[in-house]
Structure formats: structure tokens, C-alpha cells
């Protein structure tokens, strides 16, 4: 009887832990998406080179962090879906890298195209995985 109760308690604790981990991952992912949205706004409104570089760095970090977890909508055994999700993030990461190069070389007038592509990638990703 005591063994069954201990197993039941341990099972309950494990279930709570796993659900909290899932909620935490979803919260982290949501936070990262907010960082992306906020900094896309910075890219659209600023002409200050340092501010633009900082926004792009924050976006890059958010994308890297997002690669560590997957949306709740994607089951962990959906290899194709996970690969597609990661590919969307890689496209975004590549566009951020290109934008950083443009800003670093002073090509601020070309940044608008990059920002537009970043936003398109982000919106498309939301449609697929939200």
C-alpha cells in the first residue's frame, strides 16, 4: 500500500514537472517571438547604426533560443514538422545576418527589403506553427 502511494506521488510530481516544462518552453518561445516583433519595429523606425545592430543581435539571440524548443502544436515525434520549423528559423537567422552586414557596411537604404523579408518569414512561420 505504501509503495503504491509513493509511486502515485512520484508519478504526480513527474506529470506536474513535465507539464510545467512544456508551459515554460511555450512561454520562452512566446517571449522570443515578442523580441522579434519588437525589434522588427526598431528596424523599421530607426536610422541609428548602433541601435540597429543591437536590435539585430537581440533578434539573432531570440532565433537561436527558439531553436532549442518547439511549438506546442508540433508533436516531438513529428520529424518533418520539426525540420520545417527549424528551417523557417534558419531562413530568419540568415536574413538577420544579411541585415547585420548591410548595417555594418552602411547600406541602411537596403535594410527595408531585409526587414520586409524577415517579417514575411515570421508571419509565414506563425501561420504554420501557431
Distance between the termini: 45 Å
Mean model confidence by pLDDT: 82
List SSEs in N-to-C order.
HHHH
Give the helix level as a range of percent. over 70%
Q: Report the uncertain regions.
A: 11-24
Gross morphology is elongated
Spell out the key features of this protein.
0% strand; elongated
What can you see in these coordinates?
Helices cover 82% and strands 0% of the residues. With 130 residues, the chain is mainly α. Helix 1 packs antiparallel against helix 2 (49-66), helix 2 packs antiparallel against helix 3 (79-104) and helix 3 (79-104) runs antiparallel to helix 4. The chain contains four helices and no strands. The protein is elongated, with a radius of gyration of 19 Å. The model is unreliable at 11-24 (pLDDT under 50). 19% of the residues are buried.
Task: Describe how the helices and strands are arranged.
Elements: H1 2-45, H2 49-66, H3 79-104, H4 111-129
Helix pairs in contact: 1-2, 1-4, 2-3, 3-4
Short synopsis of the structure:
The protein has four helices and no strands. The chain has 130 residues and is mainly α.
